[in-house]
Amino acid sequence: MSGYPPNVPGFGYGQPPSAQPYPSAPYGAPGAPSSASSYGIPPPHSSSPYGVPQPPSASPYGVPQPPSASPYGVPHAPVPSPYGAGASPYGYPTPASSSPFASLVPSAFPAGTDPNVIACFQLADQDGSGFIDDKELQKVLSSYNQSFSLRTVHLLMYLFTNTNTRKIGPKEFTSVFYCLQDWRGIFERFDRDRSGRIDSCELRDALLSMGYSVSPLILDLLVSKYDKSGGMNKAIEYDNFIECCLTVKGLTEKFKEKDTSYSGSATFSYESFMLTVLPFLIA
User: Fold this and answer.
1) Which of 75, 155, 203, 236 could form a disulfide with 246 if both were Cys (CB 3.0 to 4.6 A apart)?
2) Is residue 50, in this structure, part of any structural domain at all?
3) pLDDT tens digit string along 10-44?
């Protein structure tokens, strides 16, 4: 059927794990009352959920604070530090920062990995280095009639290795294959009219099934970004659906790392913000 990458008989992805790791409640959506709040839902007496307007006593974002509060950018400490750089010169990471170009640690295939997945990796790893690069990964995925752009391949590699070295090992390669199999099933399930594309309503339901609750405004932005027709179809095809999912999943996971109180809000330093967003822009 047009729009769907067919499975190759006898040479499929292999069976995915029996239980998928998606949360029971979508991120940002209200959950059933319980003693433990769902991620993104504030505990009792805390601030409102992420994206919900604050009570009248709280000033809207961007409104000047009362005179008792220091204006944004004015340090409380007697010795000011350059914005976003701590004690380091402007634009340079503090010693605690981790490089997105850190070397990828060698890995092995998880126990029980499908032999077909292992064979695919070994075929691509012609030099026997234990790693394959972006073009080799793109070629392997194309052998399953899944034509992905290098940008999508780069996002896959970044999300599953947490580096921009653009190499991937056996363990990460296996995760990529199982994840793509899962996402293809989701795409086909929510493409209810079997058009080979999903519109904003279908995309909303697909993201909800993966645990992400995004607003109509964000949905419109995602569809306009990933619609190959430039917005005429107002729908996205399978390969761009994968890139869309990678972006939503990646940014949400990075945000959750900073949301230590599970309130749906997080504080980022300038350096952390840049390192969070830039990999998705330069992939």
Assistant:
1) 155
2) no
3) 444 445 444 444 555 555 555 444 444 444 444 45
